[in-house]
């Protein structure tokens, strides 16, 4: 078990030293949040909704980044080197998945802090806590999507695919702009995206009620889909790491 | 450690093509071959990174993967690049921590000659420094078997010497070391035993001295002065004939007899007799006929591909069998 823990600690350190991660995964969502809520219209509801949306956007980016790390480690031969140490492949994968779930926290916390401290978003203490918790748990499907990309694709392709997934799902899921601005048909599509339902979790809490069953259901379906994708990718390429 | 009829193919290429061999505990063995001879594939089979398509590979009496999980093996892989965004100390400490009985961190850094680099990031070091870090990673767990795939490729002369000194210090404590190289001098100077790998097969197995003898003890060279090469192959002691321009080079087991016969023929212009070098031995063992179209090779008794005993060659099999196998 200490193997997984030490590996997690090493990988979290490596992630936090990644300038691209710190800027793209933490600073960017905060900046975009402050920008989108302080230019033009400025009602408190949007400030709260955008806070959850941008925290979700940051979490998705950070979660996908874990897959980028895997692809990089495959390329430089670090995963191969791990295979000739006593660590089992299972420990390595577990350590990586845990790394993903730790490295989403800075983005979530940073955007929520910007909401509370800069934009004056007021919520009950339990609402802050539960919003952060749900955003944290709800990022798991995206970590799995990233791992699927990272194990299945080359480092370069992973970078591109992760970016497309990140931006595409963010826009489509209404993390940047409210879906109320979308045309009708797009709004219907948006309801089935994992990102929209991911943000729903946090949004429900800020509005003072539990997430809708629909949100949990759709997100769970994506969890299973991305989980299967990650397992298939890993199995197909396990011999080649 | 043993290979029994091990085969590993990639598409139509049989990178390892029926290798039989045993390595005993405490041996320092060089795996010598040109690029593409199958060295890295053989090492990957040994480490359990690949499963053989046919035959078996055993490490410490079981599957390679089991020995690796038990922490008996440390390896320096060839195609590894620097692990990004991690310091030397963090990396070595992490790897050491995976093994049941690792070496103390300071000792590892000393052996690899990277004590003063401990706080530096691995991806900001020079190629040679990174190579020493990879050596440290292989040593860190204090493994009984150390496997090094072309460990000195990026090192300068001085670093290379320091590296081999460390390797020897490590091997002296009864550990087994297997390293691959395409430098003949390294294999000769630092290994107790040299395995020559060519096109996926072991073509020779023995000490540097045995290899030299197997390839033909001496070289006799002279100017043909216009005469043909006919009959040279039949002279006493001659094993191989090579003609370059007007000069003939005969590889011979009995240089005295060959020279006497040449004198009888009057073919002694610019006559030279020299002991065969390990280079000559290596070329003789791995010649594929395309590089030296003029040569006629007959290296017998060196475990050529058509021979069934890849483990035979210059080294007696009896001797190997008495050893405790790793």
Report on this model:
The complex is a heterodimer of chains A (241) and B (326). Chain A has 241 residues and is an all-alpha fold. Chain A has one domain. Chain A contains 12 helices and no strands. Chain A has helices spanning 2-16, 19-38, 44-76, 78-83, 89-103, 105-118, 125-138, 140-152, 155-172, 184-190, 194-206, 213-237. The longest helix of chain A has 33 residues, at 44-76. Chain A is globular. The model of chain A has no long low-confidence stretch (mean pLDDT 94). With 326 residues, chain B is α/β, with parallel strands linked by helices. Chain B has 2 domains: 2-72 and 144-211 and 284-321, 3-Layer(aba) Sandwich (Rossmann fold); 216-275, Alpha-Beta Plaits (2-Layer Sandwich). Chain B has helices spanning 39-46, 64-69, 88-96, 105-112, 127-139, 157-172, 184-190, 208-214, 255-265, 278-286, 317-322, and strands spanning 2-10, 13-22, 28-32, 54-58, 73-76, 145-149, 176-181, 193-198, 201-206, 218-223, 238-244, 247-252, 272-275. In chain B, α6 links the parallel β6 (145-149) and β7 (176-181). In chain B, α3 (88-96) runs parallel beside α5. The chains are: A mainly alpha (241), B alpha/beta (326).
Q: What is the overall pLDDT average of chain B? A: 85
| Cα shape of chain B | elongated
CATH superfamily placement of the largest domain in chain B? P-loop containing nucleotide triphosphate hydrolases
- Flag low-confidence runs of chain A: none
Structural class, from secondary structure content of chain B? Answer: alpha/beta
Greatest chain-chain interface? A-B, 25 and 31 residues
CATH topology of the largest domain in chain B: Rossmann fold
Could you give the order of the helices and strands of chain A?
HHHHHHHHHHHH
Number of strands of chain A: 0
Assembly status: heterodimer
For the biggest sheet of chain B, the summary is: 6 strands, mixed
Classify the secondary structure makeup of chain A into a structural class. Answer: mainly alpha
If helices are DSSP runs of H or I spanning 4 or more residues, what is the number of helices of chain A? 12
Secondary-structure element order of chain B, N to C: EEEHEHEHHHEHEHEEHEEEHEHH
Q: Which second-level CATH architecture of the largest domain in chain B applies? A: 3-Layer(aba) Sandwich
